[in-house]
From TrEMBL:
Domain spans labelled GST C-terminal: 83-202
One Gene Ontology cellular component annotation held by this UniProt entry: cytoplasm
Source species: Kosakonia arachidis
Keyword Transferase: yes
Name the UniProt record assigns to this protein: Glutathione S-transferase
Length: 202
């Protein structure tokens, strides 16, 4: 199996963590989707990472579809419940975490533009999405919809989203008044799968 990705993408990290947790061996093909010349569109017409190529040469994108494919392989540990509606609820939490990644990524891209071209109102809108998404996740943890001890697709995606906020210094105060999210990421960041997929420092 080959994973097309970059070491800084939280979406790619989500898939790498899943593969590592399940002990599935894979080759990592490092591609930079934002470089003028890159090979990503060869696998995903949208030019985005991650993309997964199976040993049979089948190509899967984007990350929720890849996650579903990996889960369909039936390799332990299961990262989704078998009951379909319960699984859909976890997928919805994954979508929420992915949305936080999208908003954070948008902010990072916007801030990389010349200052005079940056839209402060758009930056504010995206920051609101991050903040509301995190508040909702904290509430789910309080209500018991999610647990800080659980390893599943939702908690993996949440930890990857927060790892990206930390890495790019987006919403640096995210941990204030969100003690359960802090606990959740403390637990997950101790795992080997997260240690091995930490984004590069420089
Ligand atoms: N919804 C996609 C989002 C993937 C995504 O936005 N990846 C970024 C890297 S973090 C990318 O490849 N961007 C390239 C581009 O937008 O051209 C997924 O879940 O796979």
């Amino acid at each position: 199996m080959k994973l097309i990705g970059s070491y800084t993408s939280p979406f790619v990290r989500k898939i790498s963590v899943m593969l590592l947790e399940k002990g599935i061996t894979f080759e990592f093909i490092n591609e930079q989707p934002y470089n003028a010349i890159n090979g990503v569109a060869h696998y995903n017409p949208l030019g985005k990472v991650p993309a997964l190529i199976t040993d049979e040469g089948e190509v899967w994108f984007d990350s929720p579809i890849i996650a579903q494919y990996i889960e369909l392989l039936g390799i332990a540990p299961a990262l989704l419940p078998t009951e379909p509606v319960a699984a859909l609820k976890i997928r919805q939490l994954e979508a929420l975490a992915d949305g936080i990644m999208d908003a954070a990524l948008f902010s990072v891209r916007e801030l990389a533009r010349p200052v005079e071209q940056q839209s402060q109102s758009e930056l504010l809108r995206q920051r609101e999405k991050v903040s509301q998404g995190l508040d909702t996740l904290e509430r789910y943890l309080q209500e018991g919809t999610l647990s800080v001890e659980t390893l599943n697709l939702a908690t993996i995606a949440i930890a990857c989203a927060i790892g990206y906020l930390n890495f790019r210094h987006v919403s640096p105060g995210w941990c204030v008044n969100r003690p359960l999210l802090v606990k959740l990421v403390e637990n997950l960041f101790q795992r080997e799968s997260f240690a091995r997929t930490e984004p590069p420092k420089a």
